[in-house]
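Open question from group meeting: does this chain pack into something compact, or does most of it stay loose? Before anyone orders reagents, we agreed to write out a predicted structure and look at it together. Recording both the input and the output here so the notebook holds the full record.
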Amino acid sequence: MRKRLMALGMCALILASTLGATSANAAPALDWQPCQGLPAPLECATLTVPLDYRNPGGAKLDVAVSRLKSTNPQARRGALLLNPGGPGGSGLDLPLAIAQLSPASLTDAYDLIGFDPRGTGKSSPVTCALTPEQLDQSKVIPYPAPNGDIAENVAYAKQVAKQCREHSGKVLPFITTQNTARDMDGIRAALGEKKISYLGYSYGSYLGAVYTTMFPAQSDRIVLDSVVDPREVWRTVWQQWGPSNEERFEDFAKWAALRDPSYGLGATPAAVRATYLNLAAKLDKAPLGSYTGNIFRGQVRGALYDDHNFAIMAKQIQGLLGGQAPPPPSGPPGDEGQSSLATLWGVACDDATWPGSIAQHQRDVLVYKQRYPITAGMPSNVWPCAFWPTKPIEPPLRIGDRGPSNVLLTQNQRDPATPLVGAKAMRAALGDRARLVTADAGGHGAYLFQENACLTNTATTFLVNGRLPARDIRCGTELSKRADDPARDRIVQDIQSKQFPL
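Structure tokens returned:
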């Protein structure tokens, strides 16, 4: 009986993969044109895909695709599909950014392919018609009230779930990671590639793991950076922000303590931490205009994504201590911001079910608030998913080890958004298909983001020459030798801005 059940399970997995591949293999060639609003030599095209792959003859969606051709056609070996993260991050302009960060050997070897995932940007965008007040990032990423109460978060989550249903309810149930992976295989087929390589950051690491699990035979060289824990998406992934931000804040505290004569935030890491917590509590009680303690917490959390933000953050804290507030962050701008947030909730709420108990969320917030004060209970707070009007159309895909050994995981040891525990879990799930390369560094984004020569060279060698390390590698703190490059830092920060929340 057990063997029969295992056989049936394998058949179901093969059928699911074939379902995506069937429509993908029928994809017409892409009609490349100049990209509207993006510079040459980037080219753009549109791929039409099924809304529901169970009904390929039914309603359709458009997926916007971009291409930056190989800089050396004689050295070209294929196409490298890119994703910046999210869920909901637009990727149409990503080839331009990755090309500026990459060595020539990588841009010679590949056409760089970007796309806006279904529902996002120019790919049949969805919307929840959020008001300017609802775009407040301390509400989107839900921080509780100063005393830990979540009543306002519950009201926000209920209202957003209602608006999402009213404005995009016919499409949102199909805005899922597995359907996006099926779209990716459609892109591969439309490019005329038998196999496709992939570089995905943050949420894009999970998307790539889903793709190569569903389509192992179509996967070429796969790099998953800043790796999501695949075991229990998505609430458990968010909850990992509690301990990971505590660990990462210590990097900033050590940095600031060494520079106490300049910034005056404290002469020891413990003193810097106390300065942060006391300032957040002070802003809870007496905001500086519209600048609240939760806005402050959210800005600090974002700054922890990159060491290059530390000086800016220290100056802002210095100003706040003197009663001067920086301008509060605006919500994601315009229609693209609306579609990004709707896609974020679509994926988060339609990939897997969430607990609906308000009492459970309240208990968890109070526990996390005490245990992980840097984030004040936010990682366990309630999302619109608790009140989502539909159930997932299919269960989460179990990431497995069936397929070739062609996956490289790249990871910073102290990542505030996708901590090392998740990368280790992904490594275990993929088994001998994968190798894990870690850098003794903090921040979100490792390959091409950090300057760690060991990690960068390992990943580039794999993508260009196909050499997967024989075993996992732990890289030290060694840095590539380069001059300060503000333009490069701005490119990295722009990509990180798409990684919302991951």
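Observations to bring back to the group:
The chain has 18 helices and ten strands.
The longest helix spans residues 2-25.
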